[in-house]
Amino acid sequence: MKKFLCVISSMVAMSLVTLAGEATWLHDFEAAKAQAKAENKPIFINFTGSDWCGWCIKLEKEVFSKKEFQEYAKENLVLMEADFPRNKEQSAEVKAQNKALDEQFGIEGYPTLFLLDADGKKLSEDVGYRAGGPAAYVDHLKSLLKK
């Protein structure tokens, strides 16, 4: 029951953000999988050190925060962030989930990003940082999803 309520609350939160015009990163993997199934979209999972990793911060500034990426993500992806911050607070549940995901996917550095199906299985290898801004990044994601 607790898991069900988490999934529902995450989907409601995502709906409210989507109505506001921006895609947002979920932090609950089960909720991301449920949303991916409900919307028939792939999950784009971002393993990041959001408050200390230079490449992660650069990717956020150059791509993820830009309108082109936001519009594409809102229509085509379920965004999932597995964050490993040094200075941000996280619940014990989120920390445990992220550690398990880190081990499951064999993460060796940040940022590491994958496209996943609604069951959490890899559809791509590491997408990582790519130069060229949001348009080039979106084009790369589209090409990966065509395969």
TrEMBL record:
One Pfam family cited in the UniProt record for this chain: Thioredoxin_7
Record's signal peptide: 1-20
Residue span(s) of domain Thioredoxin: 5-147
Alphabetized InterPro entries for the sequence: AGR/TXD, Thioredoxin-like_sf, Thioredoxin_domain
Keyword terms: Signal
Superkingdom to which the source organism belongs: Bacteria
Protein name: Thioredoxin family protein
Species of origin: Luteolibacter algae
Lineage: Bacteria, Pseudomonadati, Verrucomicrobiota, Verrucomicrobiia, Verrucomicrobiales
